[in-house]
Amino acid sequence: MIVTAYGPAEQSAVPLALDLRRLDGPVAGIEKAAAAAAATSGGSVSAESQTREVPTEILLHIERAGDRLFPGRGWVGALGRKLQIEAFSIRPLEAIAPADIEFKGFLPRGGETQWVQGGALCGTRGRRLPLIGFAVRLGSHLSGRFDVIYQGSFFTEGISTPHRNGQPCRAAAPDDPLEAINVRILERATEHERPPAAD
Questions:
Q1: pLDDT tens-digit profile of 110-122?
Q2: Do residues 58 and 97 make contact, with C-beta atoms less than 8 angstroms apart?
Q3: Which run of H or E residues covers position 47?
Q4: What phi-psi label fits residue 119: left (phi over 0), alpha (psi between -120 and 50 degrees) or beta?
Q5: How many CB atoms neighbour CB 149 within 10 A?
Q6: How much is the CA Rg of the chain, to the nearest whole Å?
Q7: Nearest to 179 by CA among 113, 100, 98, 80
Q8: Strand-pair partners of 152
Q9: What is the pLDDT of residue 180?
Q10: CA distances from 131 to 33, 125, 137, 149, 170 (A)
């Protein structure tokens, strides 16, 4: 973040007071979903000690901006700027092979894409056809070790509640374009990695 202050030169020595707050407050919902996912694996230690996030790269095709590659941490896209996502791809960087993650996009007027594997682009380029939702899932053989939790931000409805493991993430309003996504892949700690429970 870069902050530039303007004013008379004699006021330059006056300290600048800033109040920094997250605008994407519902991210806390993803944290709660992650804690719930960890709780289903048993034990009484915190979610942070039971899970680790798998690093990813996310490619988005955004209207008027073209293809943009993001590290898959937090929100990616044009959050709050009403630039529609037309296509996306998610590639895990470790622990999971690209073929083990699948995703699909939902299109206006009831359309949807097929499930696409990691590395391939899901959606369209150059047709001005927005995605109005998406879903992400992992191969069934990974369901005991990993969870994928995600949210979307939409033009009209704003930020959705968290969804997980293949559930459709769409706005309640029909054909509400998607402007940003937040996707987390969480690996649960195995039994021998977990710290002992407190007495």
A1: 999 999 997 899 9
A2: no
A3: helix 47-50
A4: left
A5: 23
A6: 19
A7: 80
A8: 181
A9: 97
A10: 24, 11, 17, 18, 9
